[in-house]
Amino acid sequence: MGLSLQYCAKSKENKNVDIHISFSESGKINNPFIGHGVQWSAYPHADAPDAEWGFLMTDEKWNELYKRVDFVNPHIIRVMDVSTWRYYKGLDKKGEPILDFNTEEIKSLYKLLDYCQSRNIKVLFGEWGAPGLWNLDETIPEIERADDVRWTNMIVKYLEHLIVKKGYTCIKYYNLVNEPNGYWASTDGDWEQWKVGYIQLDQAIKKAGLNKYVSLSGPDAVTQWDHPKHPKKAHDWVYSTVKDLDTITGLYDFHIYADQDLIRTGKFIPYLKPFTSEINKTNKPLVLGELGMKYSGALKEENTNRGKADKFAGPDDSSMFVYDYFYGVDMADAAIQSMLAGVGGAIAWDLDDAMHTVGDLGEKSQLKKWGMWNILAEEFGNLEADKIPRPWAYSWTLLCNLFPPESNVYQPDFSVVNDSVRAVATLKEKDVTVALVNQSNTVKTIGLSTKMFSNNTPLYVYEYSENNRPVNSDGFPVVTKRVNSKANNLTVEVKNNSVVFISTILIK
Questions:
Q1: Which of 285, 450, 473, 494 might form a disulfide with 32, Cβ 3.0–4.6 angstroms?
Q2: Are residues 358 and 400 in the same domain?
Q3: pLDDT value at position 13?
Q4: Per-residue buried b or exposed e for 169-192, using 16+ beta carbons within 10 Å of the residue's own CB
């Protein structure tokens, strides 16, 4: 594919842009900033001897993952599970759940949680849906609903095991049902069912004394899709959670899969603002629980064709552009726009191709290809492009490393109104970072001015451009160059369709 197809957004082509960052209250975006992160699941098809692919997740594989994720440095990790994958063994003759917390599958989950605990990373934990969603035999009685007290009690016992007995206090938030407004969810878009289950789970967590460790996250809806059989619109899942459930909600989250027009023209900011204006009144953090790109038009067609040509990809649920440089520009731009809109962090979908298959049935020909790599690449064609960090891992690593949690986020002032250049700045103690995105087809010369760049302040420039993104021996970003600011001013050249970070933080 050529750039003419990749970058077709219209923009005002002003070559020179001056940006001033005052770091004053007027430019400050007042919301709790958690930082950016990733979705990471515990490899349900390769986590035990009797898994669909066998016990492929060896200690060697986990150690390689630890090394890579250390470079990425996520600050929040979403870990979604299924009870039948780990600890739920069906119902007894009385219809009560049979639980086993000593399975090989749970021990594999410990590998992931050990990492998060040791690095002090916040975990947004949860289950994709009610246990019955994964029981394909409709003749067997099953737990089907989010408001079934049996599932509520199962969840609490599981959290007691993980947090109290095993000490995984990194689990800070709990997500009840993935995208509950969707027809694919166990709730099938039933707001009342989900709401009752949400309240019921909060009460059970408090009764067990777990509320000193964990609180609920919601609504986890995908805001771009309205259920045809239910009157509540996707947006209203967010607003109703704020209105009806704020007192029991510790974290707000919803999902976005954006197309190129929404991101490349800066329309993502006004899309998000109605949500953030309501949520930020609560002083609770908001994250995008899943963020990814789903392209439209010619790019959608190209994505489908690539998926069909790949014998391991599920073409209807893969983003084949993870192999392409431009995906890293779009993902970085989406995260930066979310910060400008008042979102406190974005969780990228997802870390690794090897985590999920379409329907999670374990079919090797139906990988959900969205990852930064495939840790089991040898099992899936043995391609070099799957073994090493893909281009978008570069820009996401910079976002995670250079925007630390609890930073203050600032919106810069532009000399020229445009729809293709964006900037955001953060300040935490003495560390300053400015990110610049140029989605146009021309090079931009950007003049940065701020009192935070005093004379001879050492600044590190990190460039993510098509022909210049230097890496270390493991394939992760290193400094492009070091510069010293002069008299609070700095001139930066930002190549067409690229991202540049200027920071006092040195990534080692």
A1: 285
A2: yes
A3: 57
A4: bbbbbbbbbbbbbbeebbbbbbbe
- Report, as ranges of residue numbers, the positions in the chain whose pLDDT lies below 70: 1-14, 136, 139, 455, 487
List, in sequence order, every residue forming a beta bridge with 499; answer none if it has no partner.
437, 464
Give yes or no: residues 55 and 80 share one domain: no
Q: Are strands 215-222 and 88-91 parallel, antiparallel or unpaired?
A: unpaired
Torsion of CA 160, 166, 169, 173, to 10 degrees: -40
CATH of the domain at 37: 2.60.40.1180
- Tell me, yes or no, whether 376 and 484 share the same domain: yes
Residues 325 and 468 in one domain: yes
Tell whether the torsion through CA atoms of 41, 46, 48 and 51 is positive or negative.
Answer: positive
267 in a structural domain: no
pLDDT digits (tens, 9 = 90+) for 227-254: 999 999 999 999 999 999 999 999 999 9
| Domain that residue 161 falls in | 75-258
Number of domains in the chain: 2
Q: Are residues 326 and 470 in the same domain?
A: yes
Inside any domain, residue 266: no
**Pair 402, 436 in one domain:** yes
Please identify, among 258, 276, 303, the residue that sits at the C-terminal boundary of a domain: 258
Angle at the Cα of 46 from the Cα atoms of 317 and 474, rounded to 5 degrees: 80
CA torsion 493-495-496-501 (nearest 10°) is -90
**Residue 6 pLDDT:** 33
C-alpha 460/C-alpha 472 separation (Å) is: 16
State the DSSP code for 164. I
Would residue 296 count as lying in a domain?
A: yes
Q: Is 196 exposed, middle or buried (0-12, 13-18, 19+ CB in 10 A)?
A: middle
The answer for residues whose C-beta is within 8 angstroms of residue 187's C-beta and 6 or more apart is 129, 130, 145, 146, 177, 180, 181, 193, 194, 197
30 located within any domain: yes
What CA–CA distance (Å, rounded) separates 202 from 200? 5
Residue with tokens 């509540």: 232
The Cβ-side half-sphere exposure at 376, using a 13 Å CA radius, reads 24
SS3 6: helix
Q: Report whether 151 contacts 91 (CB < 8 A).
A: no
DSSP code at position 26: G
Same domain? 58 vs 84: no
Which amino acid, 98? I
Q: Three-state SS string across 367-400, please?
A: ECCCCCECCCHHHCCCCHHHHCCCHHHHHHHHHH
Identify whether residues 367 and 236 lie together within a single domain: no
Partners of 407 in the beta sheet? none
Residues 35 and 403: beta-carbon distance below 8 Å? yes
In total, the chain counts a number of residues equal to 508
Residue 125: strand, helix, or coil = strand
Preceding peptide of 219 cis, ω within 30°: yes
Q: Kindly state the percentage of the chain with pLDDT values over 70.
A: 96
CATH code, 171: 3.20.20.80
Kindly report, residue by residue over 311-368, the tens digit of the pLDDT: 999 999 999 999 999 999 999 999 999 999 999 999 999 999 999 999 999 999 999 9
